[in-house]
Amino acid sequence: MQKLFDKIESLENEYIEFLVDICNIESPSDYKKGVDAVGEYICEKARNLGWEIEIQKQQVSGDCICITMNPEIAEKPIVFSGHMDTVHPVGLFGTPPVRIENDKIYGPGVVDCKGGIVAAFFAMRVLNYCGFKGRPIKLILQSDEEVSSATSNKTTVSFMAEKSKGCIGFLNCEGYTEGYATVKRKGISKYLFEVTGKAAHSGVCYNGISAIAEAAQKILEFEKYKNPEGITFNCGTINGGTVPNTVPEKCDFAVDIRFSTKEEMEEADKIVEKVSKKSYLAGTTCKATLLSRRVPMEIKDDNLKLLEKINEIFTENNMPTLLKNSSNGGSDASDISSYGIPCVDSIGVRGGAIHNKGEFVYKNSIAEAAKRLLVIAYCI
After folding, report:
1. Is 93 within 8 Å of 85 (Cβ atoms)?
2. Does the structure show a pLDDT above 90 at 229?
3. Mean pLDDT to the nearest integer, 300-321
4. Contact predicate 244/201, CB 8 Å
5. Which SS3 state, helix, strand or coil, does residue 200 take?
6. Which residues make Cβ contacts (< 8 Å) with residue 310, sequence separation at least 6?
7. Structural domains of the chain, with CATH
């Protein structure tokens, strides 16, 4: 095993170049051209190694991709996964988007989640180099994770589940917190609320009905739900009115709702229905539309058993074991786990400032992540 680890270390310049290249290709979720360019870059590397490539074409989101090493082996596969899309608008990080300073690499997606993709690819490459034939290894490249797969109408998730069916484990390469792996995540629902009132000149504002005032009452009602362990409501955007001297007839706002269980999801839906139907100001109406949904990743025996097996492998190879962790953020592991596929999440690279202009990854964490993934695939 040490020889394989040494081989990963020897490839440092190559995997840093790989990461810089794919992060310099900006790929926000709504920019199909950029997401597809990232996918094609990685596919070209995979083709050169003789690996099998399957592409699920998409019209709006980027194409979803499954790369398989050892497709001819009749054993249960191990699946690595990461998403190519990012949250940052093109140009936010400057030109070029990526910069290297001392022990860190800064840029869009370096941790979330392109760094994890690079670590997985190089783990596979080194296993390929040593002639590993123990089982198929798959790398699934998701294309619209950051928008809960709404742009593909969840078809990318269906593709991922199909390609992971019967696997021994699904390892999602989201950002890693040292010493921990994620086995529980909150689910997410995003709703748009469209409020209608009655327009009037502000000089006779008492003749109008303010849609903004009605929206404010609804938002304040949602603010009452802030349970760190349960349901949370957050109003992230609001738009309304036309000019200051007119009573606003229209107002809309979007709310991000998080929940730990299916039962809490259903409870949150009831709260949405109650608040949207109630008129705090007589004469107003409100339409609530579900924009996207990601189910929670609840604690499951199969996921815990997979983490237990991983820790056995790490102990046998003198590597640090991982404690169970939970997260309020969403990921593909939530959706894949709902299909009954054993999942362990957040096993990618270390860094910080995720979803922020200062996003960075520690350079040495790429090799660390590649070693973790390699030893799991080799020994499981």
Report:
1. no
2. no
3. 98
4. no
5. strand
6. 169, 181, 322, 344, 376, 380
7. 2-185+296-379 (3.40.630.10), 187-294 (3.30.70.360)
Angle, helices 2-10 vs 114-129, to 10°: value is 120
pLDDT digits (tens, 9 = 90+) for 84-140: 999 999 999 999 999 999 999 999 999 999 999 999 999 999 999 999 999 999 999
**Cα–Cα dist 326/344, whole Å:** 11
- Nearest one of 211, 222, 229, 215 to 256, comparing CA atoms: 222
Q: Do 29 and 147 touch, CB atoms closer than 8 A?
A: yes
Number of other residues whose CB lies within 10 A of the CB of residue 327: 20
pLDDT digits (tens, 9 = 90+) for 163-193: 999 999 999 999 999 999 999 999 999 999 9
pTM of the model: 0.94
Rounded Cα–Cα distance for residues 277 and 77 (Å):
49
Query: Please, are residues 336 and 160 in contact by the beta-carbon 8 Å criterion?
Result: yes
